[in-house]
Every structure is written in structure tokens, then in C-alpha cells.
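User: Show me a protein chain along with its predicted structure.
Assistant: Here is one chain, sequence first, then C-alpha cells.
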Amino acid sequence: MIRVASYNIRKSVGLDRKRRPERIVEILNEMEPDVVTLQEVDRRTGARETTIPREMIEAETDLKIVDIAVRPDSIGWHGNAMLVRKDAEVLNARRHEIPFFEPRGAISAEIRLPNKTLRVVGMHLSLLRSFRRQQIRALHAQIDNGHMPTLIMGDLNEWRFEGALAEFGPDYAVNTPGASFPASRPMATLDRLILHNDLELLRGDVHKSPLAQVASDHLPIWADIRA
């Protein structure tokens, strides 16, 4: 069993309008993921520095940063970052260029855990449906599906159960753990997990701890999967 999670942290700014990365770190520790994808982790302007200090992740969690950034003070790519548990081996980490109206992107890495290797993709899709469709098609073109178990997760910005997500095709199982936005009164299922090639969803949910309800405008999602 592998525990995965995805979380749009809104640059570590909570509903109280305070930037407190320590809350994000504590929430990650509450969920205890083996792999987590983060969205909006870096500042959008300037040097695009991370809003969660590297040393805080290294010292206060059992996770390490997947080396994906191109800027020295960043841990992500267009705000997307990936953390994995410290004993995992990271293979072939990639940045994916996808069409965008707002700054958006996707990242992937092959993660070797005890007895299993899987591909994990983190995405943050556009607010515009036409661009979401283009972004999904672009990702398909860049990922060699092969036979490797593949998990895609992130803030997909799709309010409906179909819409642009139909672009993933019949071989991909789109899963919605629950309403995750807005954190104060969740109504929309914007954060999703998509499984491909023999990955089995055992259970999943939205993480609704008291801290998570104020730390960002999204609630994190998590799932236990069998690879």
C-alpha cells in the first residue's frame, strides 16, 4: 500500500491571510504520505522562491523534495512541486510544457519504493475549460504510457464529473475523494486523482483537520493505493 496526497497550498497563505508554512508542514505530517504533489508552492513573481523553506521540509518531515526546479530559490515548476519519503529513489524527474493562459504546468517522476516503481504526475490545470483540454492532450503526448503504473493528481479546476477530464480517455480512472474547495465550506471537487495501468484505489478522502480548514483555500486530498 502506498499513501499519496495532493494539496493546493495557495502559497502558504491561509484564510486568515497569514503566510504560515509551518501549518502546511504540520498538515503533511498529519496525512503521513509516501508521495505528495503540491500546487501553488512558489511565489508567482520575482525570483519565484518557495513559500516553504527547504530546511523546514528536511528537518520537520519524513519527506524530501524531488529536484524539479530551475530557479535556485524554488522547489517547483510553475508552482507544482513533489515530495517523497526520504527512503524513496527518484528516477527521471521531468518538467512538462503545457499550453497555458495563466502560469500553469505539470511535473512527473518515477518513484521507486520498496518492491514497486510507479510514475507520479502533479498538475495544476487552467481555469478555462478549452485550455484544460489542451493541457491534458499535451501531457498525454509527453508521457510514455507503456506498462508503468501511473498516478496523476492535483488541482484540475474542473467543477463537473466529465468536461475536460474526458480527455484522459477510458483507460484512466478519475477519482474524486470529495469536495475540497473552498476549505471553509467545501462544495467543489476540484482536486482529483487519476489512476492508470493496474493501480487500485483502496480508500481516499479529503483531509479535514481543524488546521487544514484554515491553512489554505483548498483542503488536501489523500488516498491509499495498491500498485
